[in-house]
Specification:
By secondary structure, the chain is an alpha/beta fold. It has two domains: about 5-155 and about 350-365, Rossmann fold (3-Layer(aba) Sandwich), CATH 3.40.50; about 170-350, 3-Layer(aba) Sandwich (Rossmann fold), CATH 3.40.50. Helices cover about 50% and strands about 15% of the residues. It is built from 18 helices and 13 strands. Strands 3-2-1-4-5-6-7 form a seven-stranded parallel sheet, with helices on both faces. The protein has a six-stranded parallel sheet with strand order 10-9-8-11-12-13, with helices on both faces. Helix 10 (about 190-210) links the parallel strand 8 and strand 9 (about 215-220). The longest helix is centred in the middle third of the chain and has 21 residues, at about 190-210. It starts with a strand and ends with a helix.
Amino acid sequence: MKKLLIVTGELSAFNYAREIADELKNDLELYGVLLEEIEGVKNIYDAKKLTAFGLFEAVTKLLEIRKGLNTIRNFLKKEKPDAVLLIDFPGFNMKVAEAAKEEGIKVFYFISPKFWAWNYKRGKKIAKLVDRMFVIFPFEVELYKEFNFEVTYVGNPLMDMVKPDKSREAFFKEYNLKKPPILLMPGSRESEIKYLLQLMLKAAKKIKETDPAEEFILPIAESLDFKAVSETIKREAPFVKIVKGKEAYNAMFYSKAGIIASGTASLEAAIALLPHVVIYKLHPLTFAIAKRLVRTKYISLPNIIAGEEVIPELIQDKATPAEIKKALIDVSEKREAIKKALTEKVKSQLRGKAIKTLCEELKVSV
């Protein structure tokens, strides 16, 4: 049986890996770099040791990153898998691509590095190192043509994954909700929690001052220490209802608005047609460098896909409790218009069955 190594970093990539493994486990011998164990996959390194949010924050992980790369290099030399499947996580996964190429191992990439946002020249390097690229946004197909590199748009996996698994009535009853809450999503990485959790809780307190009956719900991502994060929330904003990360999609569908960290969660919320405010905050030095490098007009995926500001973005110094409250009030007043824009300008640009299409391609390509 042919061997495939799947390398992930972020929680969103891990969730995709779980779906991919379920489709491929009977056809291929699977190995992984994962956040936690997946049935049918032999995990060779803990991906939690590799993730950081920002350039300076990553310095604290350098030893683990080096150790992770060495583990993967040794695995590639010893086990000689037929291919590697890299999912997102470009800073690390491009190094894995280099290592695989040196060993003559096929490199497949799912969810392209966003070279079009940060470094356009990086597209040429990607084209040299990757044998097949599978993208989740249709506009990326055209962007890669400049490098004479043919890519395959397989659809967007979130179109199939983002759905509730219980009724609104059951959700409200389980968490004792009297009205649709405001959803808080500070991110899935420890470094995001460092910069965004307290900010969101302060914003929630300001909103609560104006309307004491307002309700809030916060799903804690699976990749985080549930106990540590929940203790912080209980201490700083005990009125916020804490739920496990698996409730995130239910919360998106049954909340009235959201305050969400920039990233995959914002696109998930857009697919759920949840009006929300996107916030983004980094270490000041990281932000200063990023500001010089970033090429896109917007930072949130819904706005990038739409080509206009469908949802408000509050970046760095603009991300204050007062500004978040103000933006959320505006979003609430424009709720129906925003839902219409998310439907017509974001959701309509994407298609489903991405994982199934990807796995069908992998079965014949590995």
